[in-house]
Each structure stands twice: as structure tokens, then as C-alpha cells.
Amino acid sequence: KQEVTQIPAALSVPEGENLVLNCSFTDSAIYNLQWFRQDPGKGLTSLLLIQSSQREQTSGRLNASLDKSSGRSTLYIAASQPGDSATYLCAVMDSSYKLIFGSGTRLLVRP
Amino acid sequence: DTEVTQTPKHLVMGMTNKKSLKCEQHMGHRAMYWYKQKAKKPPELMFVYSYEKLSINESVPSRFSPECPNSSLLNLHLHALQPEDSALYLCASSQRLLAGGPGNEQFFGPGTRLTVL
Q1: Is A41 close to B88, i.e. CB distance below 8 A?
Q2: Which of helix, strand or coil describes residue B56?
Q3: How far is CA A23 from each of CA A107, B6, B46, B51, rounded to the nearest angstrom?
Q4: Cβ contact (<8 Å) for A43 and B108?
């Protein structure tokens, strides 16, 4: 059974810092990995999608990498801003087309 | 139009009520999903529709009844719910259910906050 783990569970950084969020999964048979952002009480906003054949994707200040063989992904946020404060969720699509989520990392960027 | 909309935003219902949640997208997506999210937990998949046919049912109790009347609409009919069913219900869509490619990217709506008294 696919399990997705995110470390750390919570992170507090001063504004301007570069940071890395980690995601690991137990079964490398995935179709893709998707990173989401969720603000309190809101829906999910898709940030980046990495196909199983890809190594990384970039969008603005965000860069996500995927190492399928080791079951790991990282989300790099450059020059963090208070507006980046949210919960970040990673999710993998398994071989039965189901999206399996990690428990998320709660990020606080302090002004 | 690149968004998924959900109505209502909030819903309070008693255990004997019947209500429905609605989800709509006009991106031409042919896969639509219902997720349930409890407080401080990740979303959990409930149902998946592909080309208006139910493809995945994650052993959800029959008091939840999904319906996909056309390619743009997804409903979730609720009946005889329990207080533990209180949660944020999220709808999502993607181009297709695919083995690979960007068409698998899922786009989520803002959710319906459901409270069962």
C-alpha cells in the first residue's frame, strides 16, 4: 500500500530565506507527483506536476524534483515571502490512478 | 475558464435531512473526483468519474451517493449522515484518467464545509 510522508510537519522561517520541503513515498510505481498549496479552510491550489519520467519542474520561485527510484521529492522555495505561508501537500498518483496525499507541511514565513 | 466551482460554500444539516453538493467545471475535463478532508488531515479520495461513468468507489457508505449528469457537472447526494461525516468536501477535475502526461493534473474547487448536527 502506497504511503506518503512529509517532513517537517511544520516550519517557521524568516522572510527571504530559501527553504526545502521533503516528501517521500514507499512504492516507486507512480504515474506522477503533484505539489499543492492549501490555505486554511480553502481548497487546494496545484503548484507543480512532475511526470514519472521527469526529474524536475520549475514555476517562478518554486522548483520541484523527483527521484522515483529512491521514492523522494523535494519542493524548493526561493526567497520566501509571508504570502507563501500555507500548508504544502505532496501527492502521488498510484498505479490505479488514485492520488495519495501526504499529511502536509505547515509553513509560516515571518515578516 | 480554468476553475472548478462548488456550491454551497457551507452547509449545515441534520441527520435526517437530504441535501446535495454540486461541482462544476468548464475546462472540458472528462475525469472528476470527490474527496473528503477532515480537519488537519490530508484529503481522502471518495469517488472518481471518468467520461461520466463511476470508475472508482473507495468503499464509501451508501449515505453518500454520487452522480455525474453530464461532462461538466458532478453532484454528491447526502442522506442520513452522521456527525462524523462533518468535513470539507472537495471536488477536483483532470483532463482524463491517463497512464501519463500532464492531463493527469488535478484541479480542485474551494470545497463545501459540511456540518452534520
Answers
A1: yes
A2: strand
A3: 14, 29, 23, 32
A4: yes
